[in-house]
Amino acid sequence: MDWIVPIAVAxxxxxxxxxxxxxxxxxxxxxxxxxxxxxxxxKKNVDVEGLGRLMGNALFLMGFLIGAGMLxxxxxxxxxxxxxxxxxxxxxxxxxxxxxxxxxxxxxxxxRMKSRSKFAIAGFVVFLAVVAGGVGYLFAQGxxxxxxxxxxxxxxxxxLYGQTVPVADIRKVELVFALPTVExxxxxxxxxxxxxxxxxxxxxxxxLLFLDRSKPPFLYVETATQKIYxxxxxxxxxxxxxxxxxxxxxxxxxxxxx
Length: 258
What we know:
- β1 and β2 form a beta hairpin.
- Helices cover 45% and strands 20% of the residues.
- It contains 7 helices and 9 strands.
């Protein structure tokens, strides 16, 4: 539905803006994670006003970055959207490190940060780096064009969600020039026009997609349990695969001689 997009874009941004406003301007410091669980004695060693300003400003910036990134994603600008959202990670790291300035509980008498605090921050930064690396890897994999070959009695589709479809299981092969409307992504990757994984299509239902929507035609393959749409890097390669697969799935007495 049309209203889902603006809600999905606006909700995380508005939520972060609201929390940032409450902390920064309404002095609702109980919303600051960590500070709200401190004992009253430890709270006395925290410059909560400075911490509140820092936290509020960081939440405003993160809200803007996530909102802008979500908007780009819904506009099919996958690369730009992921990059903009990814900028929120350095903000989190900066916030974590900078917040130590306002908390004297984690500082030695000479003003230096205690070793345990340094290790905790380093561990969190490593965790964020691992998460970012994993997301980056999945993004890179999802950005690759589909590779599919006919070999060893099966149609081998590579990449995320790739699989091998035995030729003997294929009961229908068609070359289509218009893709049915994509209604929902149920378990897949959508980076711009590159779609990979499980989707729901209008008038088709559940289907596996391995394709670039901007490069028709599309090869439609149907088995007793699956409906698959795919295309390759160029229309010519897709046409060649269609011809090979069509021949391979013909009944034996209809296959060309030689």
